[in-house]
Specification:
By secondary structure, the protein is an alpha+beta fold. It has 24 helices and 27 strands. The protein folds into five domains: 77 residues, Alpha-Beta Plaits (2-Layer Sandwich), CATH 3.30.70; 235 residues, no CATH class; 86 residues, Calcium-transporting ATPase, cytoplasmic transduction domain A (Distorted Sandwich), CATH 2.70.150.10; 128 residues, Rossmann fold; 116 residues, 3-Layer(aba) Sandwich (Calcium-transporting ATPase, cytoplasmic domain N). A seven-stranded mixed β-sheet has the order 15-27-26-25-16-23-24, sandwiched between helices. The chain has a six-stranded antiparallel β-sheet with strand order 7-6-8-14-9-12, with no helix packed on it. α4 packs antiparallel against α5. The longest helix has 35 residues.
Length: 741
C-alpha cells in the first residue's frame, strides 16, 4: 500500500465504465475520514486522503467490497503508464449494467467478474455460467421428451441453478440500497415465472440473460484493447550507454539526460532527441503518421515508434511517466470525467425510468384482474415481462460506448480528445480560429533579409542576437540561428527584458538595444519615409519585419519568413466544404498576415495581443468555435473557446489547457477531428433511437400479450449488445480531412 503523508492508493477490479467510478467514489466518500477521492477507470486505481484520527484504509476497502468489487493495495504510488502494467488485466467479462448511484438507490449495476485480459470468454465465471445453463436447458428438453413423468421439474432445476449467482448479486446490491437493478428484476421475473408454471420460459430467460452478459463483456473488452495495446508499445528494456558500453536496463528506469542506443527494427524506449545517426522512424503506432519520418541529430523521437533503417543514439528528454505514450494514456483516463451533456441527460433520465417501469409492471399485474376480472396468471406473466424490459441498460450505455470508441479511434490516428464533452462540442462547431506561427505556419521562420542602415550587416546581426539570446520565441531562434551560421560571436548583455506585444530589449554596456515591431520604431520617430516603404514591401511579400534600435536610432531591419505548412491550404478548403468558417488570429502586422492569409484562402485578423485573441474567441463562442494554437500566449484563447485544440508540437501549457491535441501537427487533422466528432454523435443518435425504439415496441407488445418473457430478455440484453456493437464500429473509423476515411 502506498502512503505519501495520508495519501493511499488501491487497485479496484471490476470497474468498466464511468458510472462504476461514480459508484465507488460515492461509497468511498461516505467513509468517515476520507477526502480527495480520485479514481481512474482505465487503470482501475483509487486514491484518497485518509485522516489518521478519523479514518482507516480497512473502512475504504470494506465499502468497496460491499459493492461487489474487489480491492487490493497498490504496489506503486503514481502512474506508470509507460509499461504494460498500465494495461493490466481488465475485466473482460463484466457486463455493462451500469450503476448510477446518486444516493437514492435508483441505479442499475454491474456484476464484477475479475477475468484476466487474456482469458477466453468460456474461461470466465460468466462464460462458465452460460455453458452450465445451456447444458441444463438442453438436458431439461431431453428429459421432457424422454421422461415426461418428470414434468417441469428439470426446467425448475435449470432455472434455479442458473439464477443462483444472479440472485446473490441482487441481494448484495439490495443491501447497499439499490433495489432497481437488472439482477433484482431478473430474479423477481424468473421466480415469478416459476410460481405461475412458466418454468420452461424461466429457464430460457436465465440462459439468454447469461448469454447477453457474456456478449456485452466481450464487446466491452474489445473497446479496452486499444489502451492496453497503446501501453504495450513502449519496450520493456532499453540499451543504455555508459562510458562507451551498452547494457540492458528497464525502460521505466531511464532518466532525463541518459543516452540510449536504438538498433534498426527496435522500438524507441523513451521520448528524446537524436544525438547521432540518420534513420527513418515509423511513428504510426504513436501519431498515426503512415509515412516514416527521417530523423537526424537534433530531431525529436517518441517512445513506442520504430527505428526502421539505421542505428540511432538518443538522448532522453522526458521521464518515462511523462513520455508521449504516457500522456496519451493519461489524457484518455482523464477524459472519463468530461462527460458529454447528452450522457448526463441520459443518466438523469434513467434514474426515473426504471422506477416508473416497475410501477407500470405492478399496475399491469393488479389492475386488469381487480378491475376487469382478468386471469391473474396471464397478467402476472405480462407484468413480469415488463420488468425484464424495465432496465435501461442499452440506453445508458449508448453514449459512453460511442464516446469510448471515438476516443480510441482518434488516439490511434493522432487525435487526442479529453472526453465526451469535447467530442459533442466539436460536432457542433461553426467556426475555427487559428494561431499563425507554429500552427498554420511551420513555426521555424528563416531570416531572409538583413537591411543595415547605421552600421554593417554583421554588426546589426550581432546586436540583434545579443538582445534575443536566451529567448525561445521562434523569431528570436531564427535570428540566433542566422548568427550562428555566420559564425558571429554573441556578446553578453544585462537588464534583458521582454516588451509584451512589442519585442525585447537589453543593455550592452551603456547602449540600450531593442528588437521590436516596426510600429514601435514608428512611434519613436525612428522610421523615415524611405525605410517605411521598404518595410511595406517586405511585409507585402509575407515577411515579418523587426526593427533593431541602438539607443534611439534605427540601426537596421531584419526580415523573416515563416512558410505555411504544406497542408494548411487543403485544411482550410476542407473546413469551407464542411460549412465551417476559418479565421487566422495573429500578432503579426496586417500586411504579412494578409499575404499569408491570401495564400491559404483564410480570413485574417492581425496585430492581436493575447487579450485581443481572447475577445475575438469570446465573440464566436455562441455559435461554436475551435481555437487552434501552440504557444503559451494561446492558452487563454484555448481555454475560452468552446473547444481548444493544441498542435502536438506545442508547449506543455497549451497541451494542458486544450480540450484536444493534434499529435501529428497537421492542419488537416482539424477537419478530421470534426468529422470524427460528427461521426461519434451520429452513432450516439443511432444508439439512442435503437435503444428507445426497441423498448417502446416491446413495452407495447408485452402489455398486449404478443411477446413473452424470453422475448423481453432478448429485448433488453439484445438491445444492449446491438448498441455496443454499433458503437464499436467507430473503432474502425479512419478520420480524414477529405471525408474519405
Amino acid at each position: 500500500m502506498v502512503q505519501t503523508a495520508n495519501r493511499m492508493e488501491w487497485q479496484v477490479k471490476g470497474m468498466d465504465c464511468a458510472s462504476c467510478v461514480a459508484k465507488v467514489r460515492h461509497a468511498v466518500e461516505r467513509v468517515p475520514g476520507v477526502s480527495n477521492v480520485d479514481i481512474t477507470l482505465m487503470s482501475e486505481r483509487l486514491r484518497a486522503d485518509i485522516d489518521p484520527a478519523n479514518g482507516n484504509h480497512q473502512a475504504v476497502e470494506k465499502a468497496v467490497r460491499a459493492l461487489g468489487y474487489s480491492i487490493a493495495a497498490s504496489d506503486t504510488a503514481g502512474p506508470a503508464p509507460q509499461t504494460a502494467d498500465h494495461g493490466h488485466a481488465h475485466d473482460c467479462s463484466c457486463d455493462h449494467h451500469h450503476h448510477h448511484d446518486d444516493g437514492h438507490g435508483d441505479a442499475h449495476s454491474h456484476s464484477h467478474d475479475e477475468a484476466d485480459a487474456g482469458q477466453s470468454w468460456y474461461q470466465t465465471s460468466k462464460g462458465r455460467l452460460v455453458l452450465l445453463t445451456a447444458t441444463l436447458l438442453a438436458l431439461a428438453w431431453i428429459a421432457e421428451l424422454t421422461l415426461p413423468i418428470l414434468g417441469l421439474w428439470p426446467f425448475v432445476l435449470a432455472s434455479l441453478v442458473g439464477l443462483a449467482p444472479v440472485a446473490k448479486r441482487a441481494f448484495l446490491l439490495l443491501r447497499t440500497g439499490q433495489p432497481f437493478t437488472i439482477e433484482s428484476l431478473m430474479t423477481v421475473a424468473a421466480v415469478g415465472a416459476l410460481f405461475i408454471g412458466a418454468a420452461e420460459e424461466a429457464a430460457l430467460v436465465v440462459f439468454l440473460f447469461a448469454v447477453g452478459e457474456v456478449l456485452e463483456g466481450v464487446a466491452a473488452n474489445r473497446a479496452r484493447a486499444g489502451i492496453r495495446s497503446l501501453a504495450e508499445l513502449v519496450p520493456k528494456t532499453a540499451q543504455l550507454e555508459i562510458d562507451g558500453t551498452t547494457r540492458d536496463v528497464p525502460a521505466s528506469s531511464l532518466v532525463i539526460g541518459q543516452a540510449v542506443l536504438v538498433r534498426p527494427g527496435e522500438r524507441i524506449p523513451a521520448d528524446g532527441d537524436v544525438v547521432e545517426g540518420i534513420s527513418g522512424v515509423d511513428e504510426s503506432p504513436v501519431t498515426g503518421e503512415s509515412v516514416p519520418v527521417t530523423k537526424q541529430p537534433g530531431s525529436p523521437v517518441y517512445a513506442g515508434s520504430v527505428n526502421a533503417e539505421a542505428a540511432l543514439r538518443v538522448s532522453v528528454t522526458k521521464a518515462p511517466e511523462d513520455n508521449t505514450i504516457a500522456r496519451i494514456i493519461r489524457l484518455v483516463e482523464e477524459a472519463e470525467s468530461a462527460r458529454a451533456p447528452t450522457e448526463r441527460f441520459i443518466d438523469r433520465f434513467s434514474r426515473y425510468y426504471m422506477p416508473v417501469i416497475v410501477g407500470l409492471a405492478f399496475l399491469t399485474i393488479i389492475l386488469p384482474p381487480l378491475l376487469a376480472g382478468q386471469p391473474w396468471d396471464t397478467w402476472i406473466y405480462r407484468g413480469l415481462a415488463l420488468l425484464l424490459i424495465g432496465c435501461p441498460c442499452a440506453l445508458v450505455i449508448s453514449v459512453p460506448a460511442s464516446i469510448a470508441s471515438a476516443l480510441s479511434a482518434g488516439a490511434r490516428h493522432g487525435l487526442l480528445v479529453k472526453g465526451g464533452a469535447a467530442i459533442e462540442a466539436t460536432a457542433k462547431i461553426r467556426h475555427v480560429a487559428f494561431d499563425k506561427t507554429g500552427t498554420l505556419t511551420r513555426g521555424t521562420p528563416q531570416v531572409t533579409d538583413i537591411i543595415a542602415l547605421a552600421l554593417d550587416e554583421t554588426e546589426l546581426l550581432r546586436l540583434a542576437s545579443a538582445v534575443e539570446a536566451g529567448s525561445s520565441h521562434p523569431l528570436a531562434l531564427a535570428i540566433l540561428a542566422r548568427a550562428e551560421a555566420s559564425c558571429i560571436s554573441v556578446p553578453s548583455t544585462s537588464a534583458a527584458k521582454a516588451l509584451p506585444g512589442e519585442g525585447a530589449e537589453a543593455r550592452l554596456g551603456e547602449t540600450l538595444l531593442r528588437v521590436v515591431k516596426p510600429d514601435f520604431a514608428r512611434r519613436a520617430g525612428c522610421v523615415s519615409a524611405a525605410v517605411d516603404e521598404q518595410i511595406s514591401d517586405l511585409e507585402a511579400a509575407g515577411k515579418t519585419t523587426v526593427a533593431v534600435l541602438r539607443n534611439e536610432t534605427l540601426a537596421g531591419l531584419i526580415a523573416l519568413r515563416d512558410d505555411p505548412r504544406p497542408d494548411a491550404g487543403a485544411a482550410i478548403a476542407a473546413l469551407t466544404a464542411m460549412g465551417i468558417s476559418s479565421v487566422m488570429l495573429t500578432g503579426d502586422n496586417e500586411r504579412t498576415a494578409k499575404a499569408i492569409a491570401s495564400e491559404l484562402g483564410i480570413a485574417a485578423k492581425a496585430g492581436m495581443m493575447p487579450d485581443d485573441k481572447l475577445a475575438a474567441i469570446r465573440a464566436m463562442t455562441e455559435e461554436g468555435v475551435i481555437m487552434v494554437g501552440d504557444g503559451i500566449n494561446d492558452a487563454p484563447a484555448l481555454k475560452q473557446a468552446n473547444v481548444g485544440v493544441a498542435m502536438g508540437s506545442g508547449t506543455d501549457v497549451a497541451m494542458e489547457t486544450a480540450d484536444a491535441a493534434i499529435l501529428r501537427s497537421r492542419v488537416t487533422d482539424i477537419p478530421a477531428l470534426i468529422r470524427l466528432s460528427r461521426a461519434a454523435m451520429g452513432n450516439i443518435r443511432q444508439n439512442i433511437s435503437l435503444a428507445l425504439g426497441l423498448k417502446a415496441i416491446f413495452l407495447v407488445t408485452s402489455i398486449l400479450g404478443i411477446t413473452g418473457l424470453w422475448i423481453a430478455i432478448m429485448a433488453d440484453t439484445g438491445a444492449t449488445v446491438l448498441v455496443t456493437l454499433n458503437a464499436l464500429r467507430l473503432l474502425g473509423y479512419k478520420p480524414s480531412a477529405d471525408g474519405k476515411g
